[in-house]
Specification:
single chain, 472 residues, alpha/beta, Jelly Rolls, 3 domains, 6-stranded antiparallel beta sheet, 11 helices, 23% helix
Length: 472
């Protein structure tokens, strides 16, 4: 039997604002090491005996970033499945199970969130081997994390009777919601409770049988979504209408709380879901004063504080127990005891119809990225970078004209019926309403400055006529 890692990469990570945003969530960021959390998750299981390339489930907006990040670390995924809408983990895993079972009737799934930290990788491999023994016979396994503190931010799992022939393996008795402090202290003292890791292992056919019994509406909708799925470039797109019709539910609620075949594998693997800035600080190296710092940071008489600078120097003097995070368009300052309230900031930004919760000033596209430099009444300035061999869509705008100045590299510009090559320090003008396209025919990145002018400068003022990335 082969093991297929199924990496769930659909989360938003709102508690790690301002670094994590809707179009660049925490799993696509290098939070702990120089690799993103998605890359770390995929690399964690690469090369294990019997483990295949991962199947990644993600949202449509992240598809090109997911593909590029895996390519950057030399991983060719088994597939990248696109969710038309967020429906929690149960429908996502059911879709992956349908997809894998059609290819391998004996497929075993190792379900891994893309945004977790595991510091003891060898211990994790051993835990997976123990789970593998159980799931071959039809059990549905979850990995219970041995708690080292009375954590109130995690759900818990109560273990049942030990299972013969498998060290530290137990029947799954019940799930417990996030407790208050005194209840969590009792759980730790009891010794029979684990943190709920959100990681699972089971045969694809067994999971489908269980979700068909306990959540038939999810099973039916997902079956239709996979049946009517279609290929788009390197991606598998689930049928939009069928998947949207599925109820939204987690694996825990839809299946694991109801199955009679649930088991829990006790796991001491240095795990964290990095669900807040204080949790991120806990898994990073600290200086002699307990500080965590990254970027251009100056500290003086400061202790037990996380400081992250993304675009400029951040100086912190005479404080303790804080989180200070700077990006080029937002700054967060919070007490470590209050970091769970960061999601309230995101809610506020949504209510105010702002954009700082959606994206950074640097916005990635399959062809490269652009960055906002300046904006004012009827004008906007961007820095655009196009990767070698890539091109933007053939497009036009109803409300703006554009002026392009090449900073470095070579640009091929289509403007109406004309096609020209531009080199460094050369420029061109794209009149309002004119069909145009930008390409990089060279072997080096193309960098240019774009000056937009007009009555409306929103990104939705784009009419695409042709696009190599199959964007609408």
């Amino acid at each position: 039997m082969k093991i297929y890692p199924v990496i769930l990469s659909g989360g938003a990570g709102t508690r790690l604002w301002p670094l994590s945003r809707a179009v660049m969530p925490k799993q696509l960021l290098p939070l702990v090491t120089d690799k993103t959390m998605l890359q770390e998750t995929a690399l964690r299981v690469r090369g294990w005996p019997g483990v295949m390339a991962p199947l990644v489930v993600c949202g449509n907006e992240h598809r090109f970033l997911v593909a590029e990040q895996l390519r950057d670390v030399g991983i060719t995924p088994h597939g990248i499945m696109l969710e038309p809408a967020g429906r929690n983990t149960a429908p996502a895993v059911a879709a992956a199970a349908q997809y894998l079972k059609a290819q391998d009737p004996d497929a075993i799934m190792l379900v891994l969130p893309a945004d977790h930290v595991i510091e003891k990788n060898e211990a994790f491999r051993v835990a997976v081997e123990r789970a593998f023994q159980l799931v071959q016979d039809g059990s549905l396994a979850t990995f219970g994390i041995v708690p080292n503190a009375p954590e109130t931010g995690y759900g818990y799992i109560k273990r049942g009777e030990p299972l013969p022939g498998c060290d530290d393996c137990y029947k799954l008795e019940r799930f417990v919601e996030k407790p208050d402090r005194s209840t969590a202290e009792g759980f730790v003292a009891d010794g029979g409770f684990y943190w709920n890791s959100g990681m699972f292992m089971f045969r694809a056919d067994r999971f489908l049988a269980e979700i068909g019994q306990h959540a038939p509406q999810i099973a039916s909708a997902v079956e239709s979504a996979v049946k009517d799925a279609y290929v788009d470039l390197d991606f598998c797109r689930l049928d939009e209408a069928a998947f949207a019709a599925s109820p939204s539910d987690s694996i825990d609620y839809a299946v694991m709380e109801h199955t009679r075949d649930g088991v829990v594998v006790s796991s001491d693997i240095g795990w964290s879901d990095v669900g807040s800035w204080s949790a991120l600080a806990d898994v990073q190296a600290k200086d002699a004063n307990g500080n965590v710092q990254r970027g251009d940071v100056y500290l003086d008489n400061t202790s037990n504080t996380l400081v992250r600078a993304e675009s400029r120097i951040v100086a912190v003097v005479g404080v303790s127990d804080l989180v200070v995070v700077e990006t080029n368009d937002a700054v967060l300052v919070a007490h470590k005891d209050q970091v769970q309230r960061v999601k309230n900031i995101v809610d506020h930004l949504k209510l105010q119809a702002r954009t700082e919760h959606l994206h950074h000033t640097r916005v990635y596209r399959p062809w490269g990225y652009y960055e906002g430099i300046d904006a004012g009444d009827r004008f906007q300035v961007k820095r655009i970078t196009v990767k070698p061999g890539e091109k933007l869509s053939l497009q036009m705008h109803h409300h703006r004209a554009e002026h392009w100045i090449v900073v470095s590299g070579t640009a091929r510009v289509t403007c109406g019926e004309k096609s020209i090559l531009l080199a460094e320090n050369e420029s061109t003008y794209i009149p309002l309403g004119t069909t145009h396209r930008l390409e990089n025919p060279g072997k080096l990145p193309l960098h240019l400055i774009e000056v937009q002018s007009g009555s409306y400068l929103g990104e939705d003022d784009i009419v695409r006529f042709e696009d190599i990335y199959s964007r609408a």
